[in-house]
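Usage

Read records sequentially. Each one opens with the input sequence:
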Amino acid sequence: MPRVKRGTIHNKRRKKLLKAVKGYKWGRKNLIRLATTARIKAGAHAFADRRKKKNNMRALWQIKISAFAKENDMSYSKLMGLFTKKKIELDRKILADLAENNKEILQGVLNEAKK
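and closes with the structure output:
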């Protein structure tokens, strides 16, 4: 059986790895052993942070809605409770966008809820 040399595969795999970790600090950008672990950890953090991003966005929306509520002498929980009681089913993403860009529209919604 003829001998199979795999040098090209070996080099290709390492080049691909080093391309992926380009821009990392210290030895993680050019030492294979460090680059391998850095790439694995980076992938794990990227996966987890895609899920954390959703929590961060909801927290940001709550802050924007809360700022609008404070301008109208209410707390965030009172405002959301009022919307729930009056069955105004706008989600936090939409409310936050209105609070930031169209305050007069959100003010109208709040006035309807107070009636």
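Summary fields computed downstream for this record:
- Residues 32-71 form the longest helix (40 residues).
- The helical segments are 7-20, 32-71, 76-85, 92-101, 103-114.
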